[in-house]
Amino acid sequence: MFVIVVYDTLAERNPQVLKTCRRYLHWVQRSVFQGELSTAQHRNFTTAIRKVIDPTYDSVLIYRIQTPTLVETETIGQNLGNTSPVL
Amino acid sequence: MFVIVVYDTLAERNPQVLKTCRRYLHWVQRSVFQGELSTAQHRNFTTAIRKVIDPTYDSVLIYRIQTPTLVETETIGQNLGNTSPVL
């Protein structure tokens, strides 16, 4: 599945969230990661995220699209990371 | 089409970007909007965004998915906005 993750976490927890996202996905913009994950990887990722965030304050939003070829991306302005859904 | 927009713009331009996004989409998280747009609305939205950002500094990333029912969302922690792809 193709996954887009956007997070809004307390600044002091950002480094751990960033590190966890980097382990599974690639960075595309500030607080945004994307990538292709298997069901097992997705499960491991969400388990890892739950360990580093405070669910009473932080928010991590995950979009899952089963068919990555259906996702088109466009960037207006600076292209910070690689946003191609198919790598 | 179902659209997810994430932006990283200079703080002083954020209010205009926010206002433009709100006109076409709904807010789901800090710097993240989503919604269903027609081709014409999408064109108007990107035209409006280009007018308020500085493309040499800001970044606005747009994901387009033609079939919104293929998008699943999950939130870990706080659910800030309405993330249902089908409203």
Automatic annotation (TrEMBL), chains A, B:
Name this protein carries in UniProt: CRISPR-associated endoribonuclease Cas2
InterPro entries, alphabetized: CRISPR_associated_Cas2, Virulence_VapD/CRISPR_Cas2
Pfam family, one: CRISPR_Cas2
Chain residues that bind Mg(2+): D8
Any one GO molecular-function label of the UniProt entry: endonuclease activity
Gene3D superfamilies in UniProt: 3.30.70.240
Function summary: CRISPR (clustered regularly interspaced short palindromic repeat), is an adaptive immune system that provides protection against mobile genetic elements (viruses, transposable elements and conjugative plasmids). CRISPR clusters contain sequences complementary to antecedent mobile elements and target invading nucleic acids. CRISPR clusters are transcribed and processed into CRISPR RNA (crRNA). Functions as a ssRNA-specific endoribonuclease. Involved in the integration of spacer DNA into the CRISPR cassette.
Family to which this protein belongs: Belongs to the CRISPR-associated endoribonuclease Cas2 protein family.
Assembly and interaction partners: Homodimer, forms a heterotetramer with a Cas1 homodimer.
EC number of this enzyme: 3.1.-.-
Organism in which the protein naturally occurs: Sphaerisporangium corydalis
Cofactor: Mg(2+)
CDD domains for this protein: Cas2_I_II_III
Keywords per UniProt: Antiviral defense, Endonuclease, Hydrolase, Magnesium, Metal-binding, Nuclease
NCBIfam families for this protein: cas2
